Structures are given as C-alpha cells and as structure tokens.
Amino acid sequence: MRQLSTFWVVIFLVSVSLQNCAPEPGPAVEEAATTEADVEAVKRVREQAVAAINAGDADAVAALATDDIVWMPQDKPTSIGKEAFRLYWVALLDQFVFDRTLSHDEVIVAGDWAIHRSTLEGTMTPKFGGEPMSHSAKAIDILRRQPDGSWKHARIIFNGNSPDVVAHPNL
C-alpha cells in the first residue's frame, strides 16, 4: 500500500513540474494584420478575372488561379486544377461573349487567405446566333497569397440568379 501512495505522489509531482515547464498559452496561429492594401489587391484580382472573361481570354482567367484551384460552378461537377479550370473557360468563352460588371460585396483577409463575396451582373451573348441573355450571379472566391505576395484564386463557388441562364445546357 505504501508503494501505491508513493507512486501517486511521484505522478503528482511530475505533473506539477511539467505544467510549470509548459510554454505560455498564446494564439495557435499568428495572423498578419489585414491591411487596406490586402483588401484592394484581392479586389483587383477579381476585377482582372472579370475583365479577362469580358475579353474572352481563358488563359488570362486561368493565370489568376492557383495550380490546385477547386472550381464549383452551378449544376456542373467540381473541377480541380488550373488546366481543368482553363478548359471550362475555353469552352464557355468559345460559345458566349460576356459583358459583366462586378460588385464587391465583402472582403475578409486572414493571414495568407482571403474571402471575396461578389455579385455579377450583365449579359451573355451566344456567338453563333441568338439574343443576349441577362446574367446575374453571386460568387464566393477564396484567394491565397502567393510567395511573391500576389493573390490568386484557390477556391471558387458560383451560383447564377438568372433562370434563363441556369436552364442553358452548356453552363
């Protein structure tokens, strides 16, 4: 019985000693302060993407994406990787001319990640005949800061608001 009591005293003393050696509690992740420059840089990337889509330039759209981008367009399977993302835009821009405007609804920057919530308005005109279609959509873009300090799209989820566009089989 005396051995059992000694055992518990030793366990208690070791645990108290280890608690005194533990580092001070602190934040699990050091986050860089969000600056207005970060917010503006994220907005610029989104504006560049819309400009590239309006210009019909799938390569320029893809250049703004990380190599491991995850793209989740409405009513289509998720695609992963820059080349799959580029090919999606090649196919779509081969069929339509876009004229979009972008509203920056919300930008949150946390360290090397940013969330951009936006609204897109405009028209999509079929290249091979047909009337322009009104186009209204919303998106969540998650961007990741690159080693050179630039921002690129890492994750995008897109959802249209226009019934005529949603019903189109190629979107």
Topology:
Blueprint: H1 2-21, H2 36-54, H3 58-63, E1 65-72, E2 79-80, H4 82-95, E3 96-110, E4 113-126, E5 133-145, E6 151-160, H5 163-166
Parallel strand pairs: 1-6
Antiparallel strand pairs: 1-2, 3-4, 4-5, 5-6
Question: Could you walk me through the main structural features you see in this protein, from its secondary elements to its overall organization?
Answer:
The protein has helices at residues 2-21, 36-54, 58-63, 82-95, 163-166; strands at 65-72, 79-80, 96-110, 113-126, 133-145, 151-160. It has a single domain, classed as Nuclear Transport Factor 2, Chain: A (Roll). It is built from 5 helices and 6 strands, in the order H-H-H-E-E-H-E-E-E-E-H. The model is unreliable at 9-32 and 166-171 (pLDDT under 50). Strand 3 (96-110) and strand 4 form a beta hairpin. The chain starts with a helix and ends in a 5-residue tail after the last helix. With 171 residues, it is of the alpha+beta class.
- The CATH topology annotation reads as Nuclear Transport Factor 2, Chain: A
> What would you call the quaternary organization?
single chain
What is the correct CATH architecture? Answer: Roll
**Overall strand count:** 6
